[in-house]
Amino acid sequence: MPDDVRARQRTGTGLGLLLALVLGAVLLRGLPEDDGRQDADDCVPRTVGAWSADDRLTGEFARYGDDAGRADDWTGGDGTHSVRLPDGRVLWLFSDTYLGQVYAPPNPVGESFAWRDTTAPLVRNSAVLMREGRLETTLPAPLFGDPGPNRWRWPVAARVEPRSPGSDERVVRVLLWVRTAGAAPWIYGMPTATEVATLSLPDLRVESVTKVFDQQLVPDPSRRVQFGTTLVHEDGWTYVFGGDDGQAAGRPVSSAYVARVPDGGLGQPGAWEYWNGSRWAAGARPRAVLGDVHRRTGVGSAFSVVREDGTYVLFTMAAGTAGLTTVTSYWACSPTGPWHGPAKDFRAVLPAGDVAAYNPQVHPALSDGSSGDGRLVLSYDVNWLEPSAAAAQLNRNVSLYRPRFVTLRLRPGR
What we know:
mainly beta, 4-stranded antiparallel beta sheet, 38% strand
């Protein structure tokens, strides 16, 4: 079993999106032709040229999470995604989330860590609002209720789009993963379906939740695909990337997939088209665009995609033991590939202890990947590895279960 998934399984249940965040990403210049492989004159190989820790943004989540003046807000979570709203606010979405009171150091064993009580509530998802770089409030959590007994929803990528094709009214569409409780190796739940929630603006009220891709009838859970780890918008289409849980079943890599939806259609199942290996088709069984067991290429426990000057760059955790600490990248000229890489790695900054990094996510809400300067803001989540100590460690030191941020600059080159 790959080391990044093995690490996820050692953390215990209820601690995050790690196992579920296995998805695919691909992108292209302009509106694709039917074969999805349009030439892109401005597409050149891209890799990470430089990176540095973003202490200001990491510190803002620490400030908000440690605020002792609140007793029912976000104090830690994983599955970090974001979307900029029309009024300038940024909506941050999280999967498994700790709420409750945080206490100033020292902790009960005399260490200089802010800490939370072991009875602090843990919910399946949450949303936090930021204004002008400062986190302000947590929406009532969980924002998306459970769809049934032993099932839950994890929010992934989100986008502001027309309420329907051609409409002037705008709404927030949030992709949701439905997971169902299961025995090992499905300790983070079996993939069940992809849903889309519609939130009103500006009050962010959940208006509806629609199932767009049901996988319950696929007998092998490791072959089920969930979409939404990342979105890329291009010339009237939203490209939605997803993946399977191949690593949970012991395969060396998980595979990435891609769908596309016209503007305003994310909440309409009939508007979705899937890449079937040769063309886009509604209702098709999607075919993988990245993932080769023999070459050991593919996605780890999570990934993200951004388009930079005609080139699509995919970030994921590296393979093998490096996948506990190291982010790597692929590049392509089209959402259907071919994907090239892996390219240059960078090592995530981690706190001391038996911890791992996962779920690298680019945040266009904070840095426009199409600006041409190659500057990107990327987050990664942190978790404790040893299952018998995971919950105690996350409460003993609340900073362990919060996103870290880095600023990247891309440059031409493999």
